[in-house]
Inverse folding.
């Protein structure tokens, strides 16, 4: 998990406020390596969330993420802010996926798909990644047990171990610059470490 420095968080949030990607390359396969190199220069550990933010710079419509809608039938769902650009986005995403420009090495990129459907979201992956990195401050609260960018719900999801922490952690994250509408703070059970039998 990436924990940004205190100085980098305001820059991330400023980038989000300034607006997300609006110019998209005609050839995502050719554009991806340069964009990836630019992004990786500032990233200590590349994750699927970074891969989604890269894809949002290649795919029009406000790409918010991808997930298997039906793995057995190999149906992918992509999240878009602007569903009016669904056909354009599906073509660009399929092209980028098939040439290995995005998600190579991840489950989505390593498995052939039969079709792509679109699901509407409110936020794109560039916004969500910035907010997730800002949300790392939540781990200063001892009741926080998890932090996730949930592609299906199109939200930053923070798990806490006690109901009494819900409001406190929500207030902390809003103060960090994350919109209330982009957040889900919910009670979750802490992960139990696996142990070997004696």
């Amino acid at each position: 998990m990436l924990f940004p420095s205190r100085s980098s968080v305001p820059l991330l949030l400023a980038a989000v406020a300034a607006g997300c990607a609006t110019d998209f390359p005609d050839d995502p396969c050719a554009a991806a390596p340069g964009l990836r190199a630019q992004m990786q220069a500032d990233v200590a550990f590349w994750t699927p969330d970074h891969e989604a933010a890269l894809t949002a710079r290649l795919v029009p419509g406000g790409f918010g993420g991808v997930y298997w809608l039906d793995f057995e039938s190999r149906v992918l769902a992509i999240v878009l802010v602007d569903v009016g650009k669904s056909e354009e986005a599906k073509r660009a995403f399929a092209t980028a996926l098939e040439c290995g420009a995005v998600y190579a090495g991840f489950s989505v990129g390593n498995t052939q798909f039969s079709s792509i459907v679109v699901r509407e979201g409110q936020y794109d992956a560039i916004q969500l990644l910035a907010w997730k990195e800002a949300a790392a401050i939540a781990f200063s609260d001892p009741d926080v047990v998890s932090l996730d960018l949930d592609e299906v719900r199109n939200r930053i999801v923070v798990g806490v171990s006690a109901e009494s922490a819900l409001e406190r952690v929500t207030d902390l994250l809003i103060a960090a610059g994350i919109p209330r509408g982009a957040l889900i703070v919910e009670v979750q059970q802490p992960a139990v470490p696996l142990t070997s039998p004696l």
About this structure: The radius of gyration is 18 Å. Confidence is low (pLDDT under 50) at residues 1-8.
